[in-house]
Amino acid sequence: MSSRPPSPGAPLRIGTRGSPLAMAQAREVQRRLMAAHNLPEAAFALTAIRTTGDAVQDRPLSEIGGKGLFTKELEQALFDGRIDIAVHSMKDVATVLPDGLSMIAHLPRADSRDAFISARYATFDDLPEGATVGTSSLRRRAQALARRPDLKIIEFRGNVQTRMRKLEEGVATATFLAVAGLKRLGSAVEGVPIPTDVMLPAVAQGAIGVETRADDEGAIRLVAPLDDAETTLLLTAERAFLRALDGSCRTPLAGLAELTGDKLRFRGEILRPDGAHRHATAREGAPEEAEAMGLDAAAELRAAGGPGFFDA
Ligand SMILES: NCc1[nH]cc(CCC(=O)O)c1CC(=O)O
């Protein structure tokens, strides 16, 4: 491992994807670091890194495939010593980190729900028979079809602005985006949050993680105070579920943990891509059982789906 600690007094280099959402998230991490340590803005340098997921705009993400589409290049930059910390949407992070890297902090989770966005209809259930919905997410596609097999789902990629233009041009009647992303972008488009019993969010949706080299004590000391223990707990359950199902972005699945008082609730589901089959389950337990709940839920759904459920 070629970690090159920055010289004393050099700014901490914050690596991020260059998309507007990623930059907004990196600036949030920077603001929190400044506040936590009473440091000036100049103590940090934002470094945008282009990832495969950003570079390939003309093909469905599920087709490019593989894990780490939005994270691999950031992690390589950490290994190479070009950046000191990497800021991720935890939704995009593989369940097993490369040796030598650690996820040191999760910021307090924002709204984990999906938003329904349409100029003409108030909610998903208001969509008329046969309406066209744009999404690039296998999960949202499968969930939409499971609830409304009559809908026509078309591939929709690009940033929020691009998608809104496509809606205006009538390419589709509605689309979905994460509420958290819209809020962080300060988007004029608000969308309507979809109840989680209508559309269960992606594992870790709305959560931001900060990763460092595992041996970079300086960076770890700076980043550790940013960790929100509740968010880390929720992600422990959700990411155990994802790991046990070996979920990649090719697999339509959803999982959400919630903490009420000292009671942890987990819900998970797996779907066939066409929405024709869906298996769902729920658990309640103590916070200490977070990981076991996720693993156990995954085992139940894997058995319910049977062999080949995740085959194309
Ligand atoms: N896969 C892209 C991605 N990764 C994280 C978010 C939203 C922000 C979040 O979930 O924290 C998005 C966009 C979206 O799904 O609308």
Automatic annotation (TrEMBL):
GO MF entry, a single one: hydroxymethylbilane synthase activity
Lineage top rank: taxon: Bacteria
Details of cofactor binding: Binds 1 dipyrromethane group covalently.
UniProtKB keywords: Porphyrin biosynthesis, Transferase
SUPFAM superfamilies xref list: Periplasmic binding protein-like II, Porphobilinogen deaminase (hydroxymethylbilane synthase), C-terminal domain
Cofactors that this protein relies on: dipyrromethane
Residues bearing PTM S-(dipyrrolylmethanemethyl)cysteine: 249
Description of how the protein assembles with itself and partners: Monomer.
Further remark: The porphobilinogen subunits are added to the dipyrromethane group.
Record's protein name: Porphobilinogen deaminase
